[in-house]
Each structure stands twice: as structure tokens, then as C-alpha cells.
Specification:
The protein has 186 residues and is an alpha+beta fold. 60% of the residues lie in helices and 13% in strands. A four-stranded mixed β-sheet has the order 2-1-3-4. β1, α7 and β2 form a beta-alpha-beta unit. α4 packs antiparallel against α5. The longest helix has 19 residues. The chain is extended and about 75 Å long. The protein starts with a helix and ends in an 8-residue tail after the last helix.
Length: 186
């Protein structure tokens, strides 16, 4: 079973339990902490994926890192995952939980890359455009400053991308110059 499929099963269960117990926002923050910790610590991810290290050692490390910082339900899912010897999918569970939470709450995640930081007026205008495109009420807009774009922007909303950057237009122009429809006949 792929990591995504296995993780999505844990996520559905965790989301349902968290909603039932009224701790959905707390569990979401916990999962974001796990995701952030795994992204920042390659060693932790390597430890979780290692078949050599015993599962009780992995559990001890996770408890040492997260105990006292997380909700009981989140710690329970860590216990279950380690008891089932599935520690390697913990980063995938944390990542997928964020996506499931956003879907449940009606939040649309979007990323915009520009050559300069957006001011509040432009940010609000972009969020309004995304709201119209996605039919979601809340937009989670992540900004990235990328000087390689030269000008314009790249907007990613879900699985859609709008590339209005000058660098992509120059790349397309360069490719069109490489094609020569005129062939010498002599």
C-alpha cells in the first residue's frame, strides 16, 4: 500500500475523532508541528524510515520530541502508528491532515511567486480572484519572492497554475526562434 493511501486512512480516522471530540483545531496545529519538524529535520525522517532502528526507540524519540506539546489525541495517533510499525508514514499523515483539514473547513491553499513582496491591496485583490475561481470562502495565500521570474507572477491554486511571468514568456520566445519553418531548397 502506498504511503498516501495508508496515510489517508489514518487522516480520515483522526479527522473524524478530532471533530467528534471538539479538538480539530488543536490537532491541526499539532499536525502542522509534526510536518514542520519533519521538513526541518532530515535526520528525524531518516530515523522514522530506518528499518534497522527498533520501533520502540522510534516511539521514544517521538515522545521525547512531542510530549507535552500536543493534544492527547495526537499523541494517541503517534502511539497507534508506532504500534503498527508505520512510523515512516508519519510525515505523510501530517501533510495529508493539513489538506483534509483545509477541505473540511473550506479553505483554498494558493501559492503566488513574484519578484517583489505583495502589498496588502494587491494581496486582497489576488485573494478575491482566487475566491471567484475556487468557490471557497477562505484563502490561505503563501507568497514567494523569486527574482528569477524577472517580472510578472506564477499563481498555483490547487492543481491549476497561471504562469504570467516574463521568464516563461522569454523561454517560449526562445523556443519559437529555434523552430525555423523556412527550409532552404537549394
Amino acid at each position: 500500500m502506498s504511503d498516501f493511501r495508508a496515510a489517508s486512512r489514518y487522516v480520515r480516522s483522526l479527522l473524524g475523532l478530532a471533530q467528534e471530540q471538539g479538538v480539530l483545531d488543536e490537532v491541526h496545529k499539532d499536525m502542522q508541528l509534526i510536518d514542520k519538524t519533519c521538513k526541518e529535520s532530515h535526520d528525524l525522517v531518516s530515523l522514522l524510515r530506518s528499518p534497522i532502528i527498533k520501533h520502540d526507540k522510534k516511539k521514544a524519540v517521538l515522545v521525547k520530541i512531542f510530549e507535552g506539546k500536543m493534544n492527547k489525541l495526537t499523541m494517541a495517533i503517534i502511539d497507534i502508528v508506532t504500534a503498527k510499525n508505520r512510523e515512516a508514514i508519519l510525515p505523510a499523515i501530517a501533510h495529508e491532515f493539513h489538506n483534509a483539514y483545509n477541505e473540511f473547513k473550506g479553505i483554498q491553499k494558493a501559492t503566488i511567486s513574484t519578484t517583489f513582496p505583495l502589498d496588502q491591496e494587491l494581496r486582497t485583490e489576488i485573494e478575491n480572484i482566487i475566491k471567484k475561481l475556487s468557490d471557497k470562502k477562505v484563502i490561505e495565500l503563501e507568497e514567494k519572492v523569486d527574482n528569477d521570474l524577472i517580472g510578472g507572477f506564477i499563481l498555483n491554486v490547487g492543481d491549476k497554475q497561471i504562469d504570467a511571468s516574463l521568464s516563461s514568456k522569454l523561454r517560449a520566445l526562445k523556443l519559437s526562434f529555434k523552430e525555423n519553418p523556412f527550409v532552404r531548397e537549394y
